[in-house]
Amino acid sequence: MYSVYTLVDPRDYSIHYVGISVNPEERHRYHITQLYGNYDKVLWVKALQQYNLLPILKIIEACEERNTALQRESYWIEFYLGMGEPLANCCFPARKGKITSVSHGYRRYSSMYAKSAWEDDLNKALRRQARRLQS
User: Fold this and answer.
1) Could you tell me where the beta strands, DSSP code E, fall in 1-135?
2) 46 in helix, strand or coil?
3) Crossing angle, helix 119-134 and helix 66-82, to 10 degrees?
4) What percentage of the chain reaches a pLDDT higher than 70?
5) Percent of the chain's residues with pLDDT above 90
6) Which domain holds residue 59?
7) Beta-sheet pairing, 2-8 with 56-63
8) Which of 52, 49, 44, 47 is nearest to 6 (CA)?
9) 98 with 74: CB under 8 angstroms?
10) Prediction pTM value
11) Could you give the number of structural domains in the chain?
């Protein structure tokens, strides 16, 4: 079973990373101990550690097949980017009309980006967030 997960900033609950893993808890430990590679993610984790904080692991979906998990990971990356979340994902598989890389705040798009694919989920997420802030 593959888990699609996010790493969440405990200070403001923003989403900084989307990934997949068969063992998300182990992968979470790796993200916070192996501080090299993805420059944006490393800077973010180090900034949290200065305040004795760690990213929150949130599993958002489970998938039986790896290919399905990869597709859903791409979906959630696109979704969260559309919401303006500060993702630190370096890159992910290019698909026609989709975002092909994210790094240092730079977003490169192939020919066209279809917003309607995640519009309903965006509205639901915004309503959930508003309810959470009111309580």
Assistant:
1) 2-8, 15-21, 56-63, 99-103, 106-109
2) helix
3) 70
4) 68
5) 44
6) 2-134
7) antiparallel
8) 44
9) yes
10) 0.67
11) 1
